[in-house]
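Hey, quick one: can you model this chain's 3D structure?
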Amino acid sequence: MLGLMQNHNLNVSDIIRFAARYHTHATVTTRRADGSRVVHSYPQIEARAAQLAHALKRRGVAPGTRIGTVAWNDHRHMELYYGIAGIGAVCHTINPRLFTEQIAYIIADAADDMLFIDPLEIAVAEALGPQLKNAGVKTLIVLGADEDVPDTPLKAALEVISYETFIAGEPAEIDWPRFDENNAVSLCYTSGTTGSPKGVLYSHRAVVLHGYATNLPDCFGLRSVDVAMPVVPMFHVNGWGIPYSAPMVGASLVLPGPRPQAADLHDLIATTGVTWSAAVPTVWLGVLERLRATGAAIPQKLRIVVGGAACPPHLAFAFDEEFGVEVNQAWGMTETTPLGLYNQRKIENRDMAQADWLASQRRQGRPVFGVEIRAVDDAGADVPADGVATGELLIRGPWIAAAYYKGAGATDQAPGGAFTAQGWFRTGDVVAQDASGYFEIVDRTKDLIKSGGEWISSIALENVAVAHPAVQEAAVIAARHAKWDERPLLLVVLKPGQTVEKDELLRWYDGKVAKWWVPDDAIVVNELPHTATGKLLKSEVRNRFADYILNKAAGDDA
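Sure thing. Here's the predicted structure for all 558 residues.
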């Protein structure tokens, strides 16, 4: 027997329409590149998204068309989120920090019809050159006014116009069309840590349900009186879903614009009344240093979320004890939209001493409603929930990927790896689970390096190293770093009779990988350990260099 409820599809356009109708006094504040600010209301954001939607339809953009964005956190990018999805097209967010070849690959793989780009990132498009047109891109739209469009050689091959000209004169109202909630809404690619980047194609249903979940009281818990500042870039897993979560409850937004520094974030927190924010540990370490250096206080109660990499224990203690800031850790992946775990108290630890609770923030957290999580051994059996036994973390739920775009990596075992026959997604993270359902990541099944919340492939770096004429064998492992948590450390065995300086080994990476992927240090060793079958024994390499700490902040300018 079926229930007698209305069958109303969950559509992303409902979020901005709701915010525009019922939260007219909430604001969306954008920090511009020059430090100035512009403020919009939700009705204005919806109106501009409607203009964009009409302009796209006039250009023949149909449901399912992929539209690329190379943009930071600002109101125009938010308008793209809603205007593109609102007509059934797919918003494909692109990380400008990826290596040029990776960007070219994902634009071609997605078959983007047009590309919206921040004026500061024009060089990214210029580096692609003819590859843009070859990939099928017809139009480049610069996110600004006519005066923000540079004189670029791209004009010889593509139509290049400003965003404001693109939407000018279009109606500011729209009756948003309805779509099956399982239709695609956005596309984000993994970082290509094992082979080529893989596309994760989100649905309207997944995004809306994810928004509901993040707004639960024991998670982000946003309210209409909050002012939320997503520092995590909107090109990364939909900005952790915050551009959807905030308007869903009518919370105001502060969008920190391109490449915000600690001083910018501190200023925004202090002057716009930010009550909630989310970023990777590296960002919060910078803000902490800024607060200490200036002796400034935070004038309002502030909650921050740490994700993308493990929260350093001293970070949680410092923010809590010195500035009264509440710190919680969250865990997720591109393939999980991204929320999977959130570290918040339960009844059994409600009265735990604050110092002990802060120390427990090393854990990634407990599952939110909507996802199932298991820790399994190599045979696929659940490991004991005793806080000691470890296993690979598997996850499934309504906002967890079921497959990669175009079937990429269907049998890959890497992080973001295989999808099991039972519907579980294999994360590649090794975890321990305690009796209360809290999970802590203790290792990774593949030897990836997570620097400032971004993945770096050790295999890719090793392949570059062994191409050096003096190198016989190479291993790259994660070394501890004071700022970035982890940075690549290169270990090489030289060919007989060869000598090479460290600086030469590091310069060998120039132009071969993204700048921020280049190892921070290189060490020549006599030999590297191997298994009985001749495979490199990475675990032993990590053990040998477990105490190796990189104190320099190489990559600060990456």
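One thing worth noting: Residues 115 and 469 are 40 Å apart (CA to CA).
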